[in-house]
Amino acid sequence: MFTLSSSNKFHLYSQPTDMRKSFDGLSGLIQNNLESNPCNGDVFIFINKRRDKIKLLHWQGISFTLYYKRLEEGTFEVPEYDIEAGGIVLGYTQMVMLVDGLSIKNIEKRKCYTLSTEAVSEG
After folding, report:
1. Cα–Cα dist 122/66, whole Å
2. Are strands 64-70 and 43-47 parallel, antiparallel or unpaired?
3. How would you classify the pairing of strands 64-70 and 53-59?
4. Considering the chain, what is the average pLDDT of its residues?
5. Partner of 43 at 20 to 30 A CA spacing, among 15, 67, 98, 109?
6. Bridge-partner residues for 7, per DSSP?
7. In angstroms, what CA-CA distances link 82 with 47, 58, 65?
């Protein structure tokens, strides 16, 4: 069951990751390279060098959940980032698009107008 939501914080690890790593290996990358706590409730995203496999590691209070996806064709498209940075923070929408294999490079958020709740009187 996919239990991630917009209330989570998503960190994309910037280096290609060996997909043989599991809970402990990925937790080590988080602690040593991102200098973060893998048990803080954030979601950490890892992609392999060929960009056809992705893993998401999420601590859910009592245990880790590891999501793993492999594309049969094509690659996961990652946003532009500084390769020297340990990781980048993604929004929920970016994470969903990334996992679904959609392009996230040219995301442009449109201006949103809110409707007024003022009462209109007839006269």
Report:
1. 58
2. unpaired
3. antiparallel
4. 84
5. 109
6. none
7. 16, 24, 28
Residue 95, φ and ψ in degrees, nearest 5: -65, -45
- pLDDT-based confidence at 100, cuts 50/70/90? confident
Q: Return the bridge partners of 12, or none.
A: 45, 88
HEC states along the chain?
CCCCCCCCCEEEECCCCCCCCCHHHHHHHHHHHCCCCCCCCCEEEEECCCCCEEEEEEECCCCEEEEEEECCCCCCCCCCCCCCCCEEEECHHHHHHHHCCCCCCCCCCCCCCCCCCCCCCCC
Q: Order of strands across the sheet with 87-90?
A: 64-70, 53-59, 43-47, 10-13, 87-90
pLDDT in tens, 37-92: 999 999 999 999 999 999 999 999 899 999 999 999 889 888 776 666 678 899 89
